[in-house]
Amino acid sequence: MIESEKLVHTVLQAAEGEIIGRIRLQKIFYLLEQLGLGGGFRFSYHNFGPYSEDLTHALLLARILEKTIKEEKVSNGSGFYSIYSVVKKDLSLPKKIGSLRAEEIKEYISRMKQTSSVEIELAATIHWLRKKEKVGDWRSEIKARKASKAQDAAISKAEELLRGLGLAA
User: Which in 17, 82, 86, 127 has the greatest CB count within 10 A?
Assistant: First the structure.
């Protein structure tokens, strides 16, 4: 198994050097783990869906080792958002990352980066409810847990993302 901070760096490289948003980053790693990334990150359910404290620690270690940078920016509203990027952009990747080919990971990440943060959060939560909690009526459950976000159109886009990643079943 690849060391967690190196894996974070490699995935950021595959993401063209940058992922914007802490929640998006967590959901990208969650979905990549489900696809076979093999990072060994343990996830539990939190307010924004699957969350890994292991990943948070790996990100911190990658920053300490000067492999990644985390910038905080002020959003249009009153909050902040994070930008995770590599210190030195390198387009070369190992052929495989976990059980996934580098080209697959690049394609998966590209799809997830093009999806809104709400839709990727819903996609990860739908997967979590179906596969981890084994909730039969996951649609009602997601609407209860995420009433302000789980609108039918956003749920449909989230399901489309899962289908595109091969995680719909």
Answer: 127
3-class secondary-structure state, position 53: helix
Closest-CA residue to 13 (of 112, 100, 115, 106): 106
**Dihedral Cα 7, 49, 108, 77, nearest 10 deg:** -100
pTM above 0.85, yes or no: yes
Summarised one tens digit per residue, pLDDT across range 24-64 is 999 999 999 999 999 999 999 999 999 999 999 999 888 88
**What is the rounded CA–CA span in Å between residue 144 and residue 126?**
12
Measured CA to CA, the distance from residue 144 to residue 150 in angstroms comes to: 8
Domain that holds residue 137: 4-165
User: What backbone torsions phi and psi does residue 21 show, to the nearest 5 degrees?
Assistant: 105, 125
CA distance 110 to 15: 7
The alpha-helical segments, DSSP class H, found in the chain are 4-14, 22-35, 53-64, 102-113, 117-127, 138-145, 152-165
Residue-wise over 79-113: b if at least 16 C-beta within 10 A, else e? eebbebbbeeeeeebeeebbebebebbbebbebbb
